[in-house]
Design goal:
The protein is an alpha/beta fold and about 350 residues long. The protein contains twelve helices and five strands. Helix 4 links the parallel strand 4 (about 120) and strand 5 (about 145-150). Helix 1 crosses helix 7 and helix 5 runs antiparallel to helix 11 (about 305-320). The radius of gyration is 24 Å and the shape is elongated. It starts with a helix and ends in a 6-residue tail after the last helix. About 40% of the residues are buried.
Length: about 350
C-alpha cells in the first residue's frame, strides 16, 4: 500500500514542479502583494479614528461600525464626535482591547460604566493624542486616564497572514480540486482504476503531495519576506508551523470534497469560485471583521480560512500559545477529517 501511495505522490509532485509557470506564480504573487501593500499603506495621515466603547448593558454582539445602538450616546458628548469609528466591546473583551490600544490597532478605549469612568490611550500614537484632546475638550463626566505603551502594528504586519492564507487557499482548492476533475475528464483516473490503487490511497497521495508543496512554498515566502521587512512575531514559530500544516490539510480536503464527483472543468471552476470569493471576503484577509454585522461574523466562522488567519495572527501579534488557539486548531482538525472522509466516500473514478 505504501509503495502505491508513494508512487502516486511522487508522480503528482513531479508534475507540479515541472510546471514552472504555476510554481513561479505561487512564489511571486504573495511577495508582490506583501511589498505592494507595505508601500501603499506606509506612512501616517489616514483619516480614520477607531474607538472602542464599553458601557452598561453592553451585550455579547458587537455593535456595527459607527452605530452605537446599544450605547446611550448621552453618556458623554465625545460619543457624538463625527468622523470617528466606534464599536462596542463587552467587559470580558476589555483586556484584549487594551492590548490593541498598545499596538495602535485601536486608537482609544472608553469605559463609561458607572463604577469605572476612564479611558486608555497610547501616548506614542498620533491618533490617540488627537482623540485625547477632543475628549478633554468635550462636555461630560471627567474620565481618568490610563496610559498604554507598545509598538505599532503596521498594516503589513497584520495583512501578511491574510496574503499567505489566500495564496494557500487558491493553491489547495484549485491545485487539487481542479486537477482531479481534469484527470477524470481526460480518462487518467479511469486508467488508474484498472490498477490495484484504491481511491483512499489515491486521495491520500494527492493530499500529502499538495500539502508538502504548499507548506514549503508558504514557509519560504514567509521567511524571505520576514528577513527583508522584519514582521512582528511575538509567538512561537513552531506553533505557527502547526497552524500552517493543519490549515493546509483542511483546505486540501475541502478541494477533494468538491472534486469527488464533478466531471466538468467549468462546473468545478464555478464551484471553487463560489467557495473562494466569500472565504476571501469574510475570513479577514484584507480587513478585520470587528465592527461588522454579527451575522457576517457568524458566517465567517464557517470558513476554515477564518480559523487559519485568526490563529496565525494571534500567534504573531499577541504571542498566543497552543491553549489560546486550541479552538481554531480543533476546528481545522475536525474539518480535515470530515472533508477527507466525505471525499473518499463520494469519490468516483470515471466521468460516467
Amino acid at each position: 500500500m505504501m509503495r502505491r501511495i508513494w508512487a502516486t505522490l511522487y508522480a503528482r509532485s513531479l508534475e507540479f514542479i515541472r510546471d514552472r509557470s504555476s510554481l513561479g506564480w505561487n512564489l511571486i504573487l504573495p511577495v508582490i502583494l506583501v511589498f505592494g501593500l507595505a508601500f501603499v499603506f506606509s506612512g501616517d495621515g489616514r483619516p480614520l479614528f477607531k474607538v472602542a466603547v464599553v458601557a452598561e448593558g453592553m451585550t455579547a454582539s458587537a455593535v456595527a461600525a459607527e452605530d452605537l445602538s446599544e450605547v446611550d450616546t448621552s453618556l458623554h458628548e465625545f460619543l457624538q464626535t463625527r468622523h470617528v469609528q466606534y464599536y462596542g466591546v463587552t467587559p470580558d473583551e476589555v483586556d484584549g482591547t487594551i492590548r490593541k490600544v498598545g499596538r495602535h490597532q485601536v486608537d482609544m478605549l472608553l469605559d463609561l460604566r458607572a463604577n469605572e469612568q476612564k479611558y486608555w490611550v497610547n501616548g506614542d500614537s498620533q491618533k490617540g493624542y488627537f482623540l485625547e484632546k477632543v475628549l478633554n475638550g468635550a462636555d461630560g463626566p471627567a474620565l481618568s486616564k490610563q496610559s498604554v505603551s507598545g509598538e505599532e502594528i503596521r498594516y503589513v504586519d497584520w495583512v501578511l497572514p491574510g496574503i499567505l492564507g489566500m495564496n494557500m487557499m487558491f493553491s489547495c482548492l484549485f491545485g487539487v480540486g481542479y486537477v482531479i476533475v481534469r484527470y477524470r475528464k481526460s480518462g487518467y483516473l479511469k486508467r488508474l482504476n484498472a490498477t490495484p490503487l484504491r481511491s483512499a490511497e489515491f486521495l491520500l497521495a494527492q493530499v500529502l503531495s499538495r500539502a508538502a508543496l504548499v507548506i514549503v512554498v508558504t514557509a519560504a515566502v514567509f521567511l524571505g519576506t520576514h528577513l527583508l521587512m522584519d514582521f512582528t512575531m511575538e509567538g512561537s514559530y513552531l506553533n505557527l508551523l502547526l497552524v500552517l500544516v493543519l490549515g493546509t490539510f483542511s483546505l486540501i480536503s475541502l478541494g477533494l470534497l468538491i472534486a469527488a464527483r464533478v466531471s466538468s472543468e467549468e462546473l468545478a471552476g464555478g464551484l471553487l469560485n463560489v467557495l473562494t470569493w466569500p472565504m476571501m471576503l469574510l475570513s479577514g484577509v484584507w480587513f478585520s471583521m470587528e465592527g461588522t454585522h454579527p451575522l457576517m461574523q457568524w458566517f465567517s466562522q464557517l470558513s476554515p480560512l477564518t480559523h487559519i488567519l485568526s490563529a496565525a495572527r494571534a500567534i504573531m501579534i499577541d504571542g498566543a500559545g497552543l491553549l489560546d488557539i486550541s479552538t481554531h486548531l480543533l476546528v481545522l482538525i475536525g474539518t480535515s477529517i470530515v472533508f477527507l472522509v466525505l471525499g473518499a466516500v463520494f469519490f468516483k473514478w470515471t466521468a460516467d
